[in-house]
Write a structure and sequence with these properties.
The chain is an alpha/beta fold. Helix content is 23%, strand content 19%. It has eleven helices and 20 strands.
Length: 489
């Protein structure tokens, strides 16, 4: 049985008990257009920040962000894989609704359709300056790059940092029979064009610092206008790399070093906001695209006892850390256990920034009332777990999760872990129908379908709705509301 961090759960209860809501008279007037800083990590597990149970490295800036804002304990990425997850964040849609799946590379035949309205496109209509720094992963060619999806400027890499012709020890890939041999050198894009290339692990080691510097420059350059900054760090996705200033600093291995450099980055962003007197009018959101890639062993993070990790529909794959902080506006030190997702960020920002809503149907829920303390509930009553191209693996309501029969990747037997940057091998598991009570069993250990047969029926009926509208590869269902991805030529 997987072990859960009950001290963390106890700590959550203490935080809720001793942080009553401030009186409305203590808060400053509502700003017309708050700035938004969205920090999106790669493969950072639910248990990786120290305030979520991580360590023995230190993350004081992330922890301070949580202390000064809201730490979510029931927050989900839409899918446990890069491209799908990022499409959901920026459009407020389940990836299958917009024809997106998997993690695409330089051979991709599809990208995020330009007909989909993204956060930056909507905020631009309300007068926002928009900038992106970091990993994109929604199409590596025009017209599917950030500048064609609402960003005024972009500096970053087009897809994952391991999509390059370099071996796990940092030497050039020489095995001509491997698909990795066909990868081009990883480009660092300025706008739509390469400005330089990432050729070595030493080049990778400078990415966190370079992206942080560019992000702070964007803040300074746009301090007199409302702005939306999307900082999508490639770390803590493998290959891990930390700059010389952080190498060995954590005394917790390379993963600890990378976590401490990422934490430094968060601190640098906050410091820049403070120096430009913007902190009181800026909502900072910190979250991740999916759980940890556990076959990499000591180069992967942790889930604080949740089942499995990246690449699965289990809790460890899609439950992620999320912190939202807005000085003087959001409650400080609050722990929020309401069901919410990355898809909910778009409709929430549209409301807060006085921007138009998307013309097409989305799946996100507006969290504004809950964030501002006007409601105790998020408004989200259910969440569906899709994986592979379009397989409906599970559905949950606020308490129960029904898992459907399927084949799943697993990090348990017969999987093999590895270490020091080299991958292991995941196994394959045959999943049976099961019902889990996530309130009492967040590790998904105990099937309770015999105790709650009526809940199995209820969730199956709701799943049929998604099979009709979004489709389901497991039942060969074609969704009536699915929109196509963009075709890449």
């Amino acid at each position: 049985m997987r072990k859960l961090n009950f001290s963390l759960l106890f700590g959550c209860a203490i935080l809720v008990s001793f942080n009553p809501k401030k009186e409305l008279s203590d808060a400053p007037p509502d700003p017309v257009k708050p700035n938004i800083v969205l920090i999106f990590m790669d493969d950072m597990g639910y248990g990786d920040p120290v305030c979520y149970g991580g360590g023995p490295y230190q993350t004081p800036n992330i922890d301070k962000l949580a202390h000064n804002g809201i730490r979510f304990t029931n927050f989900y990425a839409a899918q446990a894989v890069c491209t799908a997850s990022r499409s959901a964040l920026l459009t407020g849609c389940y990836p299958t609704r917009i024809g997106i799946s998997g993690a695409i590379d330089h051979n991709a035949k599809f990208g995020l359709n330009t007909s989909e309205e993204t956060i930056p496109e909507l905020l631009k209509k309300s007068g926002y300056k928009t900038g992106m720094v970091g990993k994109w992963h929604l199409g590596h060619k025009e017209p599917y790059l950030p500048l064609q999806h609402g960003f005024d400027e972009y500096f970053g890499i087009p897809y994952s940092n391991d999509m390059w012709p370099v071996y796990y020890d940092g030497t050039p890939w020489t095995d001509t029979t491997s698909y990795r041999f066909t990868y081009p050198i990883l480009p660092l894009l300025e706008g739509n064009k390469p400005s330089s290339y990432i050729r070595t692990l030493e080049d990778q080691a400078m990415l966190t610092r370079k992206f942080t510097e560019r992000a702070t420059q964007f803040i300074q350059a746009n301090r007199k206008s409302p702005f939306f900054l999307y900082l999508a760090h490639p770390m803590v996705h493998v290959p891990l790399a930390a700059s010389e200033a952080f190498r060995g600093k954590s005394k917790a291995g390379l993963f600890g070093d990378v976590m401490e450099e990422v934490d430094w980055s968060v601190g640098a962003i906050i410091k820049t906001l403070e120096e430009n007197k913007l902190l009181n009018n800026t909502l900072v959101i910190f979250t991740s695209d999916n759980g940890p890639w556990l076959t990499f062993g000591n180069h992967a993070g942790n889930t604080t006892g949740l089942r499995e990790g990246k690449g699965t529909a289990w809790e460890g794959g899609v439950k992620v850390p999320c912190i939202m902080s807005w000085k003087g506006r959001l409650q400080e030190g609050l722990v929020n256990n309401q069901l919410s997702t990355t898809m909910d960020i778009l409709p929430t920002l549209v409301q807060l920034c006085n921007a138009p809503s998307p013309a097409q149907k989305i799946d996100g829920i507006n969290l504004t009332d809950m964030l501002m303390g006007n409601s105790k509930e998020s408004g989200r009553k259910e969440f569906v777990y899709y994986y592979d191209k379009n397989n409906l693996k599970a559905i949950r309501n606020e308490r129960f999760k029904l898992v459907f029969p399927a084949t799943s990747q697993t990090y348990g037997p017969p999987a093999k872990m590895n270490k020091d940057g080299f991958p292991g091998k995941h196994g394959t598991d045959t999943v049976k129908l099961a019902l889990y009570d996530l309130w009492t069993d967040p590790g998904e250990d105990r099937d309770v379908q015999d105790m709650y047969p009526e809940m199995v029926t209820t969730l199956n009926q709701r799943a049929d709705y998604y099979r009709r509208t979004l489709g389901d590869g497991l039942t060969q269902s074609t969704g009536t509301e699915v929109r196509p991805a963009g075709v890449m030529k």
